Amino acid sequence: MSYSKTKIAIVDDHALLRHGIQSLLQGLDDIEVIATASSGEEAVTLLTTHSPDIFLMDIMMKGMSGIETTRWIKEQSPTTRVILISSEVNKEYIAAGIKAGINGYLPKDSSREALVDSIHTVMKGERYFSPEVTALVFQDFYLKEKDGKGLPRQKTKVLSKREEEVLAHIASGKSLKETADELFISVKTVETHKQHIQDKLGLKNTALLVKYAIDNKLI
Amino acid sequence: MSYSKTKIAIVDDHALLRHGIQSLLQGLDDIEVIATASSGEEAVTLLTTHSPDIFLMDIMMKGMSGIETTRWIKEQSPTTRVILISSEVNKEYIAAGIKAGINGYLPKDSSREALVDSIHTVMKGERYFSPEVTALVFQDFYLKEKDGKGLPRQKTKVLSKREEEVLAHIASGKSLKETADELFISVKTVETHKQHIQDKLGLKNTALLVKYAIDNKLI
DNA sequence: GAAAGCATCAGGAATTCCCTGATGTTTTCC
DNA sequence: GGAAAACATCAGGGAATTCCTGATGCTTTC
């Protein structure tokens, strides 16, 4: 029987991880890495030039994030599968990912077996989530149902485009004034954005904000 | 001629990267990955149980950092080689690494060739630094020599004990008030310390101060 | 034993922080 | 398709911090 291998594209801004995953997938008879990209922007191009079956993509990337890129991909080609790779199992990322239409979510500390499993699973049209992710989602589901609509719903924790810009400026050491000038808005608006960011992420002050930005590779 | 392969241990808290590097090193006739560890603590154990020739170790790890672990390893066994892997080419990391006695420094976006090259180089007893790292270090050297003794000497960049305490507090997100209370001094004194720190290190504001603290693993 | 650094504190003006509140637009959801 | 939520923009005002200068006593260093 003649069939073609599953075509994989790997997207990550770290070459070593990119090549590492590629190596892990070598020698398998039904999987083939046909392309790699170092950014979301490149990935979008890859979609038309190589039409992979599955994108294995880091969620945290400079420039377009994995989530944004997924939205792009799904808009252009809803049947293309996307598996996001993340270094942390984070409720908000998972939620944003599901909303963007991902087919799988894989922690970075997964085994080769889990990686291959995830590819096989999403190729069958199913979704793949690691046990940790599943546990987290189910626990969250349980908690939400338990206290129902009585308690105030948790606010969104996904930053808007503008908020991310402001965050990047401030965390890079720009003052509010400098940030305002560079973004052509008033200082007051920058203040508000900064406040919203801190509220959304639960960060008490600038120091913690910078720490967050660094931890999440936003600068 | 009978000779043994170079024994490599890989240390990284991300399994995917760990296995990725391992895959990249497979099939080489003079290199063998004999062990992997997911933390600095494990690496120290590995040293006695497996006595590898070279540690390939991520600089950024939860718990013991790559630098700290290197110090440990070099104390126990000075002939064991250590190559640090970092996602960014950072002056302070490199300096701290050299001080700790690393044999090589490899950016995460290196090619497979560079990886293998680094292993061969350090096994010859030489140090391996990527072109970017070399460029950075030489530029720094040049700048230091250029302005000699004619210009006002750069102020000391060594923080006092107290200043480091204050820095750690502030960079961890403590307010001036909180810091003052915990150190049993007035807010004004904390302000002064903070100012001195910024002056010494040439940091314009809190954001840059936090970045410095994180870059230098002071928190 | 003078000079430099260290640790402590103060005054005061500029800036930032943090809260509330507002308006118009866009997105999302049922 | 219309209500609700999120987004982007701005303002007022009190509190906190930043960023200068300057001061005092104590320790370290050459």
- String of helices and strands of chain A: EHEHEHEHEHEHHHHH
CATH topology of the largest domain in chain A: Rossmann fold
This entry's quaternary arrangement is: homodimer
**CATH class label of the largest domain in chain A:** Alpha Beta
- Strand line-up in the sheet with most strands of chain A: 2-1-3-4-5-6
Separation of the first and last Cα atoms of chain A: 50 Å
Description of the structure:
The structure is a homodimer of 219-residue chains. The first copy, chain A, has 219 residues and is an alpha/beta fold. Chain A folds into 2 domains: 6-141, Response regulator (Rossmann fold, 3-Layer(aba) Sandwich); 161-215, Arc Repressor Mutant, subunit A (Orthogonal Bundle), CATH 1.10.10. In chain A, 53% of the residues lie in helices and 14% in strands. The first copy, chain A, contains 10 helices and 6 strands. A 6-stranded parallel β-sheet of chain A has the order 2-1-3-4-5-6, sandwiched between helices. In chain A, helix 3 (66-76) links the parallel strand 3 and strand 4 (81-86). In chain A, helix 7 (161-171) crosses helix 9 and helix 7 (161-171) packs across helix 10. In chain A, 37% of the residues are buried. The interface between A and B is large, with 38 and 37 residues. Chain A binds a DNA duplex (30 and 30 nucleotides) through residues 156, 160-163, 175-177, 185-189, 191-196, 198, 205-206.
